[in-house]
Automatic annotation (TrEMBL):
This is DUF1906 domain-containing protein. It comes from the Bacteria. Residues 328-371, 399-452 form the Peptidoglycan binding-like domain. Residues 1-30 form the signal peptide. SUPFAM superfamilies: (Trans)glycosidases, PGBD-like. It comes from Nocardioides cavernaquae. InterPro entries: GH, Peptidoglycan-bd-like, PGBD-like_sf, PGBDSf, Rv2525c-like_Glyco_Hydro-like.
């Protein structure tokens, strides 16, 4: 949906025949979804996919045609975005061919850290005034019939939800994910005919999506679809089922989830997205895509779960001291814990730097390209603290990998709180570290940044 009645770009789904042949099989295990075709073949690609978008506060984009893997990888490494909108179903979508949108594409983006926003664009309100416009096969408008409590509109909403869930499971978008319905905006939100039929449709969408194990989301203009939902919420209407999340179209250029059109009280905390900048070209890493910009605050927001090491050993310090044999202090115990976690067994977790630690230190140093030395210094700390997986990190990233970066930076002179969140203080420190090493100072941690950190640079 776009404000100001401009055409909205959209994503297509798999070919309709493929979707019709798919049968979703959801196991009893949380977050596990299998896809079974009519010939009985099981696609396990979705078995490890996380629910999406999950917990996230940060930047996102959406674009008509699902980008190629090469473009997604380039933007992952160079853009501020960590979320992407994908149009998976609905006959009112503009992009009728979507060659990149496959279960493998979905699994690849999720594995690389992208947060996906699956969107359906089907029947639209008669007040929109420009649907159908893509040909004879396009969806009809939402029915305005009042018979049996707007049963026709409710039936349409249920049908769209069923189609969306079928396509989502076929693509490997697992239960627990949010499915968003795109209801295009119209000028007069007070029009009772369009308001009530839209609310009936969206109520059925929400109820059906949630009954199938997914979360319900609605995307609409701040001044129409969002306003009628918020007014229903404020009025306490029991006949209207409110979505779990809202996606506000308001092109005010402000990267937040607020708008003067609706109250701040609803869908809080962490249940909002705002599309704050409409269609325009952006270039990152030499790749240009025409996009809309979004700011997300969903789930628990960007959240880093607590973690423990070696039964409760503290690894989080704002500075890491030089250690020599005979030293006795808590950081020695932290070093021993790190060595244990990296395969050096048999080390007693005491605060004393004795002979056993000397043997482990010199072995670790040789294995990681350092000269063997009994003195443990800043570069050694930085390298051992950074060891592990090497995901791309940027605005909105959270978790153990962020903590490793924060600790590694603290092995220099940055003194960061180790929160596990890629907050402004961490990004500022990272930019300074990158600049000092002559690499792109963009506060994005890529494989190249990890390589330097893991070498103690």
């Amino acid at each position: 949906m776009r404000p100001q009645n401009r055409p909205r770009t959209a994503f297509r789904t798999l070919l309709a025949t493929t979707c019709a042949a798919a049968v979703a099989v959801t196991t009893a295990m949380a977050g596990t979804s299998l896809w079974q075709s009519q010939d009985g073949a099981i696609n396990l690609v979705a078995s490890t996919n996380p629910a999406t978008p999950g917990n996230f506060t940060g930047y996102g984009f959406d674009q008509c045609l699902a980008p190629t893997q090469a473009k997604m990888d380039t933007w992952l490494n160079s853009s501020p975005f960590l979320s992407v909108g994908i149009y998976i179903s609905g006959n009112s979508r503009a992009c009728r061919d979507q060659p990149n949108l496959t279960p493998t594409w979905i699994a690849s983006q999720l594995a690389k850290g992208w947060k996906l926003l699956p969107i359906t664009l089907g029947p639209q309100s008669t007040c929109v005034g420009r649907y159908p416009r893509y040909g004879a096969s396009i969806d009809p408008t939402i029915s305005n019939s009042t018979t049996n409590n707007r049963a026709a509109a409710r039936s349409q909403g249920t049908a769209e939800a069923d189609k969306a869930v079928s396509v989502a499971t076929g693509l490997g978008i697992v239960p627990g994910s949010t499915l968003y319905y795109d209801l295009e905006g119209w000028s007069d939100y007070t029009n009772a005919t369009c308001r009530e039929s839209a609310l009936a449709f969206l109520t059925a969408w929400t109820n059906r999506v949630k009954s199938r194990g997914y979360l319900s989301g609605v995307y609409s203009s701040a001044g129409s679809g969002m306003r009628i939902l918020d007014n229903a919420r404020k009025a306490g209407r029991t006949d209207v089922a409110l979505p779990d999340q809202i996606w506000i179209a308001r092109w005010d250029g402000v990267a937040n989830t607020s708008t003067s059109y609706i109250s701040e009280a609803g869908w809080q905390p962490h249940k909002r997205i705002k599309q704050y900048h409409g269609g325009h070209n952006e270039t990152w890493g030499g790749v240009t895509i025409n996009i809309d910009r979004n700011w997300l605050d969903v789930g628990r927001g960007s959240y880093a779960a607590p973690e423990t090491h070696c039964g409760g050993v503290n690894l989080d310090y704002t500075a890491y001291p030089r250690l020599v044999p005979g030293t006795s202090r808590p950081e020695v115990r932290a070093l021993k814990c790190l060595l244990r976690e990296q395969g050096y067994s048999g080390i007693r977790l005491t605060q004393y730097y004795g002979r056993g630690l000397t043997t482990a230190i010199t072995s670790w140093q040789k294995a990681h390209g350092f000269a063997a030395s009994t003195t443990w210094k800043g570069p050694h700390w930085r390298a051992i603290l950074a060891q592990g997986s090497t995901p791309v990190l940027k605005v909105g990233s959270a978790g153990p990998a962020v903590r490793r970066v924060q600790r590694a930076l603290n092995a220099g002179t940055f003194g960061l709180p180790v929160t596990g969140l890629m907050d402004s203080a961490t990004r500022s420190a990272l930019t300074k570290w990158q600049s000092a090493r002559g690499i792109t100072a963009n506060a994005i941690v890529t494989a190249d940044d990890w390589a330097l950190l893991q070498r103690g640079r």
